[in-house]
Design brief:
This protein is an alpha+beta fold. Strands 1, 2, 3, 4, 5, 6, 7, 8, 9 and 10 form a ten-stranded antiparallel beta sheet that branches. Helix 1 packs antiparallel against helix 2. The C terminus is likely disordered.
């Protein structure tokens, strides 16, 4: 094989290796899940279905977890004035860690008209891994406190996880399980821009290694010729 062909082959191999590394990188998986809530209200039982989205963003040694409702749930027979409704919820943890995470948010910033679905503001909390591996986050009980009354809404359709994260405990090593798709690193960033930067840097390292190998071959060949 000629020198030029050998150099081109090495460069192609390095580029291919970079692509393989990008495809094999660990990830976080998130999806919107329909949750059927059965709500116990002061005026009787009500039911509603809302798509639930849960996201995780790396923050210090843990993650900021945000839970979002795409549709309103329950309703009130009277108008709820600004700031009179306070929601909170629990997220069920599964996989490598069992338990719950409480998420809270601000009170309603606008009047909620009577007999209309109550739109829940985004709720958030901080999750700090106690172990390493894949942890799932699934919608749990929603609690709404308004005008001195309490409404609890419980998922009844056994919804699947809205988020899966491969996590590493502080000072620990990553678990063996890998999530299916999305973005991340050994301590995954769930933001797409952070993930693209991390993965691009990793691929660039492989390409750089390939270029260094080509340079070594070039120098060795020149010495042999001389």
């Amino acid at each position: 094989m000629s020198y030029r062909k050998r150099t081109a082959a090495l460069a192609s191999t390095a580029a291919l290796a970079g692509s393989v590394v990008l495809m094999a990188a660990p990830a976080a998986r998130a999806e919107v899940v329909d949750v059927k809530y059965q709500c116990k209200t002061p005026i009787g039982d009500k039911s509603a279905v809302s798509p639930i989205d849960i996201k995780g963003v790396k923050s210090g040694s843990g993650y900021k977890i945000t839970m979002s409702w795409q549709k309103g749930v329950s309703s009130s027979p009277v108008d709820l004035g600004k700031g009179s409704m306070k929601p909170s919820a629990v997220i069920q943890l599964g996989g490598a860690e069992k338990g719950t995470l409480k998420v809270t948010g601000s009170a309603n910033q606008a009047v909620v008209p009577a007999n209309t679905p109550i739109k829940i503001n985004d709720l958030s909390g901080t999750y700090t891994p106690k172990g390493s591996g894949k942890v799932t986050f699934t919608a749990g009980v929603l609690t709404i406190i308004a005008l001195g009354t309490t409404t609890t809404c419980t998922p009844t359709n056994s919804p699947g996880p809205s988020l899966s994260l491969d996590v590493t405990a502080a000072g620990g090593s990553a678990g063996g399980a890998q999530s299916e798709s999305g973005s991340g690193d050994s301590l995954p960033q769930t933001g797409p821009e952070d993930s693209a930067i991390a993965l691009g840097t990793l691929g660039g390292t492989v390409l750089l290694a390939g270029a260094a190998g080509s340079l070594w071959v070039t120098r060795r060949r020149r010495r042999s010729v001389g």
